[in-house]
Amino acid sequence: MKKKEITKNMTIGEVMKSNEKLADVFMGFGMHCFSCPVSQMETIEQAAAVHGIELDFLLKKLNENNK
User: Fold this and answer.
1) pTM over 0.85
2) Which terminus, N or C, of the chain has the lesser number of Cβ atoms within 10 Å?
3) Residue 18 · residue 62 · CB < 8 Å
4) Residue 7 domain-assigned (yes or no)
5) Domain residues for 35?
6) How far apart are CA 32 and CA 55, in angstroms?
């Protein structure tokens, strides 16, 4: 079964609920926010902007590892 595609409008909390293994991807980008209470409200797009990360590259890596 194929997992749902991760998009920029999803919250970090949503992504983590669907696949806890993606914490490694976030940490690889220096984003430890997946464990922060703000992650329940902050979208991937917002988090990437705050951390100065290229959104499309982050989404590509999250989706590649979402198996």
Assistant:
1) yes
2) N
3) no
4) no
5) 12-64
6) 16
